[in-house]
Amino acid sequence: MSFKSKQLNRLGLVQAAAAIEQREISSVALLQACLDRIEERNAEVAAFVAYDSKKALAAAAEADNNTQLGPLRGIPFAVKDILDTADYPTEYGSPIYQGHQPHQDAVCVRLAKSRGAVLLGKVATGEFATQTPSKAKNPLNLAHTPGGSSSGSAAAVGDYMVPVAYATQTTGSIIRPAVFCGVVGYKPTFDLISPAGMKDLSPSQDTVGIITRSIEDAAFFTLGLHGAATVRTASLKPRVALCLSRQWDYVLPETMRAIESLVHHLESAGCTVKRTWLPDEYDTLLAIQPRLFMYEARHALVNERILHGDQLSHRLQTRLQLGEHIEYDEYVSMRQQVREAQQKVETLFKGVDAVLYPAAAGEADEGLASAGDPRFGALWTLLHLPSVSFPIDLGPKGLPLGVQMIARYGQDTRLLAVANAVTSIIGPVGPEVSG
Amino acid sequence: MSFKSKQLNRLGLVQAAAAIEQREISSVALLQACLDRIEERNAEVAAFVAYDSKKALAAAAEADNNTQLGPLRGIPFAVKDILDTADYPTEYGSPIYQGHQPHQDAVCVRLAKSRGAVLLGKVATGEFATQTPSKAKNPLNLAHTPGGSSSGSAAAVGDYMVPVAYATQTTGSIIRPAVFCGVVGYKPTFDLISPAGMKDLSPSQDTVGIITRSIEDAAFFTLGLHGAATVRTASLKPRVALCLSRQWDYVLPETMRAIESLVHHLESAGCTVKRTWLPDEYDTLLAIQPRLFMYEARHALVNERILHGDQLSHRLQTRLQLGEHIEYDEYVSMRQQVREAQQKVETLFKGVDAVLYPAAAGEADEGLASAGDPRFGALWTLLHLPSVSFPIDLGPKGLPLGVQMIARYGQDTRLLAVANAVTSIIGPVGPEVSG
Predict the structure, then answer these.
(1) Is residue A399 part of a domain?
(2) pLDDT at position A430, please?
(3) Residue A4: predicted pLDDT
């Protein structure tokens, strides 16, 4: 393949890393292609909230010169604006923090840099990583939401502005926007990527993850971050369980059909797909999750609530007020119930590698007033299990429909291998962004 | 009781809160007594690293004027210098952060203020909450360590400079210094006090807690923080299990005798005390703990390691270097083993309210070069269980010997009630600090 004939910003992370390693392309050229794309599209897509060509190109030049940097050498990455950066202001999606400049990088940002990756800039977040939307738009159709709260991460990666972006999830803030924008959302096992330097929202649930354009890229970046140089792939016949639950009442028919079709596809390819019903006891957990969230968020945002309450959105003010009526004893009891469920959830994975579950009700909602329904991520985030979402088909509006796969605690590497096998079976899913 | 005849700085938190509520004393007078004590003793004890009489007295005056403030109205508190404060520099016990001024309070600090408590200042921490000692001394004998890493918290409370101080524990950094300084150390269930604004060290273990001079005070402060106004006490005959393990090889004979004597005391008072042997599988966990710590600390301190490596202590540099040789796969496996153990640990509490375990090998070590052996906290911190330590006798050097009690996940309120019953049975333990 000649890289000159291809828009470099469209390269996947694995491809790009190999090409840089083999000196087929330079990191500077790759960065420039990403910057060109941002220049061309960001006024409309509004994925990036801060970037600096000079800083990024200087870091890329350094990566080109220093071949010892590590497995992510020369790879551009973007950072959700809920994570601190020393090079760029960090505003947490809130006017309270306009121009706020942290003194140092979040750990995951510095870690990526230490492995050779090049910080391209900051991407939009919903207000304090809640569902109050950012200004980012869905690159596949600008009249639609990119989802939230990792709206900028999904939009920037989906629009080929950058191959990978950090994202965070407390309910469904990675997996849903990824599917809305036709990309891959990976929420690791809780705290597998260090949370230090992330603005806390609900500390028992907040998880740092990433958005990429392929599962292979997600695996490569994560392993690279931890200093492992190679992606472990496996030739697999995935064994999965389609997990049914009352939450399916909220799934649109087109998503149901797409998931049914996926199951059929997998079975035809020789995979085992069983169907399980989510035990009723998990309904309690689903009822607990928003209350646990409200109690913890009320604490986590105590400074903002007390010192700058009038600058919180009405939506967030309301949620925090609801948290006021939750007693300490109830909070402790909720935490205990969650811990018990974390123990029992193992049984869901008996005989299978992963569970299949909806990632969103349907396509990205029209309009930018709502970031969509995060509910399908709630249970898995609460239980600290790794999950990965990806598009599987197109819906009636021509936008992606997706699914998520969830695995046992800590089985991230296996989950990504299994999900990779699944996406190989279904093949590429459109549509293409313009430009 | 006439409060005028008593040094107000020696009042417990519960007493002080009631006296302020009933206008028997003012918060200003209480603060002034604490400040006088600091002026008198801090040059020697070196517990406080920053305080400001003017700021503290102004906040106390406000607390006196506004009776609506909350259950902690007018109570002075100190903050371990590993937690961010907007009013004071926060140096994390490291020269790297000399004069560093966070832009806002850690959540637990702002929360205490919002309940009416008055921030008195910052107290010393070991380097980044590790065992590299601070300059604080043991108020009971200045030639001895106060323990670490919450050295300043334990020394300040033990020396009657302040009735309560925030502390943090990753291995044994609350429970050990508390015992060394003859006070009470309470490490809540993991994240029950929000960790936002704490400098991360090993995020899967780091826990915010408090040091007070009585268990009742610890309960009152914690419940007050969560907005609950009353301490729930119970007339209890505690049922406890004395948990034996290989770690007892490191316990000095005087501590063994003190714990045996405590058991005898409890049995004479009609309490049930059974003896259990810690199952062998926990030995694996104890072996895992330092490796998990090193891996996570290497990530958490990535900025400092890369940008200011030469300003880390030799001790910490060595530990972080050891972390380099731990592979990602081993890390994930350790996290999985910990999660499994968190499930199985329930069985240790069968038929009992709490487990009795050593809090330290013996009395506070002589000299200030070592902060003592943190090992006795490792297992319980890793398992996210609440624990509380307190003195039970004096050792051959005239310094306190102590014990810790551990309860099931989330059973903090019960743990404190049971521990309170135990301390009532054994009565007060000397010695008295000078001054």
Answers:
(1) no
(2) 74
(3) 62
d(CA A93, CA A148): 11
- What are the pLDDT digits (tens) for A86-110? 999 999 999 999 999 999 999 999 9
Q: How many Å lie between the alpha carbon of A289 and the closest alpha carbon of chain B?
A: 16
Among A48, A114, A106, residue whose Cα is nearest residue A82: A106
Cα gap A189→A172, rounded to integer Å: 14
Does residue B389 belong to any structural domain of this protein? no
Q: Which of the following is catalytic: A27, A80, A202, A389?
A: A80
A173 is catalytic: yes
* CB pairs < 8 Å spanning A and B: 104
Residue A431 pLDDT: 76
Q: What are phi and psi of A224, to 5 degrees?
A: -60, -40
Is residue B331 assigned to a domain?
Answer: no
Structure tokens of B267? 């049995």
Contact B332 A192 (CB under 8 A): yes
**Smallest CA–CA separation between A154 and chain B, in Å?**
26
Give the CATH number, domain containing residue B180: 3.90.1300.10
Instruction: Kindly list the distances between the CA atom of residue B47 and the CA atoms of A108, B75, B161, B231, in Å, as whole numbers in the listed order.
Output: 34, 19, 9, 29
CA distance B306 to chain A (A): 8
Tell me: the pLDDT tens digits for A24-68?
Answer: 999 999 999 999 999 999 999 999 999 999 999 999 999 999 989
**A275 pLDDT higher than 90:** yes
Distances (CA, A) of A10 to A75, B43, B94: 13, 63, 44
Which residues of chain A neighbour B335 with C-beta distances below 8 Å?
189, 192, 409-410
ipTM for the complex shown: 0.94
Pairing verdict, β B118-123 and B76-80: parallel
Predicted structure pTM score = 0.96
Distances (CA, A) of A127 to A395, B42, B146: 29, 44, 43
Q: Of residues B260 and B1, which shows the higher confidence score? A: B260
Active-site residue, selected from the candidate residues A150, A153, A173, A202: A173
- Rounded CA gap, B152 and B177, in Å? 9
A207 inside domain: yes
Strands B184-187 and B164-169, by their bridges, are: unpaired
Cα separation, B49 vs B82, in Å, equals 12
Domain count, chain A: 1
Starting at the earlier edge strand, list the strands of the sheet with B48-51: B48-51, B118-123, B76-80, B164-169, B207-212, B184-187, B387-394, B400-406, B354-358, B239-244, B272-277
Beta strand B207-212 with B400-406 is unpaired
**Which residues form the domain of A47?**
3-225
Catalytic residue among B26, B27, B134, B149: B149
Lowest mean pLDDT among A225-229, A399-403, B412-416: A225-229
Looking at residue B7, its amino acid is Q
CA B203 to chain CA centroid, Å, is: 17
Minimal Cβ distance to A107: which of B110, B195, B302: B302
